[in-house]
Structure formats: C-alpha cells, structure tokens
Write the structure tokens for this entry.
Amino acid sequence: ECLAQNGLFRVQTVVKDKDESLTKPELGKKLSEDAKKTIAEKCVKGAQVQIIVVDGLSSTAIEANIADTVPALVQGLKAEGISVGTPFFIKYGRVGVMDDVGALLNSDVVVELVGERPGLITAESMSSYMVYKAGEKTVEADRTIISNIHKGGTPPAEAGAHMATVVKQMLAHKASGVALSEAMKG
C-alpha cells in the first residue's frame, strides 16, 4: 500500500525471504534477474540521478519517511535542472544494491533511501546513501551518507531538500564520499 501511494514499482534482490535477508546480508546487495529485467523496462538509462528506496533492516522507517522525503528530493533536484530517473523500491535490499543499480542504469548519482537497524530510540530511522558513478568498483569510502532521518531526528522533508544540495555538489565535483570531502576543502 505504501509503495502504491508513493508511485513506486517493486523489485527484489536475490534474497528469498526475511530469514535469508538477515542471515546472508551479502545477498541483499545483488539484484535478481527478474529485477534487472523490470528495471531495464521501466527506467530511463543515463538520468543524472536515480533514486531507489530499499527496506534494509526497517521497512517501518521507509513507511514513516518516504512520503515526505522523496517529493522534497525530486523537487529540489528538478529546481536545479537535474534529471531524475523513475524512483523504485527494492525488497530485501542492503546498501550495496545501489552499485548494481548504478551499473545497470548508468546514472551519474544513485541516491538510496534505506531503513536502518531499529535502535533503542526508534525503528523509524532512515538513511540516505549517495554515490557518484556507483558500480562494481564502488567502495565504502565512495558513499556519502545522511543518517538519522525521522521525525525526531532530521525531518524527512528537510533531509530531502538537503540531499538535493549534496547531489548538486557531487555532480559539480564529479565525486562522492571521501573524494567529495577532499574536493570541497580545496
């Protein structure tokens, strides 16, 4: 229902069920063949930015935050004249699945909104991972992150607008993660 309300189509990683998702996290980084086919059919290749929504370890976080985050992010990007691909949802995904998406769609930047591990304070915390030219050679140091997105942390709409600003910097510097931090210093 949440996906339909937010206009997101659904694909899945190679993970078969919730148990496998928890016991074999590396599988959550790989799109299934069906997912690749669906994405190729429904998404434009080469958009400057591709947004993906991933359940990660908390689908509650996704349900609580995307209705405000995604529109603010898309509006911020479009206001800057940045092209945005068709956002979609990946079930049983982990952060690294963005690398498969980047390689498949050849976007300049992949923005992944992912539900984080439910902590002591809330199960509604979402993070955004952003990578310039995500693909099979992406390493953790290439990822730019905005975390603690929820009503008691960074409000979802504010986070979406901030992500648009960060993506603009990534495109200008052709970098993300540590390389972006270094480029902005100098």
